[in-house]
Amino acid sequence: xxxxxxxxxxxxxxxxxxxxxxxxxxxxxxxxxxxxxxxxxxxxxxxxxxxxxxxxxxxxxxxxxxxxxxxxxxxxxxxxxxxxxxxxxxxxxxxxxxxxxxxxxxxxxxxxxxxxxxxxxxxxxxxxxxxxxxxxxxxxxxxxxxxxxxxxxxxxxxxxxxxxxxxxxxxxxxxxxxxxxxxxxxxxxxxxxxxxxxxxxxxxxxxxxxxxxxxxxxxxxxxxxxxxxxxxxxxxxxxxxxxxxxxxxxxxxxxxxxxxxxxxxxxxxxxxxxxxxxxxxxx
Length: 283
What we know:
The two termini are 29 Å apart. By secondary structure, the protein is an alpha+beta fold. It has five helices and 19 strands. The protein is globular. The model has no long low-confidence stretch (mean pLDDT 96). The strands form five sheets. Strands 4-3-2-1-5 form a five-stranded antiparallel sheet, covered by helices on one side.
């Protein structure tokens, strides 16, 4: 995890819902250098020692930031849940649909989401995020992808559907507005997730359940995605991949429903915690 004011977050390790271990004296940040040097494994022993001696601190009311520093790239997979593809009327893809989000969309799990100027169709998407753990290209097999993953994180792939679909060009311009990728509260390492292909997912808007799903309906699972992307680009340590959303997005509703200032999104994934974002109007 990372806590503190935006732009001044410090790295910590969660002990439980109320306590953490400060590791800012051991690592500068949870960034490309940290993941590329196998940082998650190197922290295990000193963190265990600090917990054993009671060297833990309360979260209190401190802000929780995104659990990783701004990544080198933020990649996304579209229409990756069979039930979500069905609700949009789209044919399930035969290969992963790839688009990008600007890395500066990354914010904390409890930060405000800002509707962009000119928006009429801002939407929500609870998703599983993959964080890359080492420089990766041309993986030989899907099985090799397991060793390339540092961990998993809860994300909200906020989207502006008019910009994405009706304005021509690529999806990225409907995905890259300021605040459009809340992430966290924590990064879970792969050993903490018994089966990443069987995680419950949910999202509420104003207390009303909108999305209910499970990663088992993914068309392409996280290991396939990492292997696939490695055939086309170099994945850097700390890169974030959003892997698609289950059904229940505003675009799929009849009539369609869009986010408005004052709305509150609450979301979660099994073992990855919960998040809450308030929607605010344009600057």
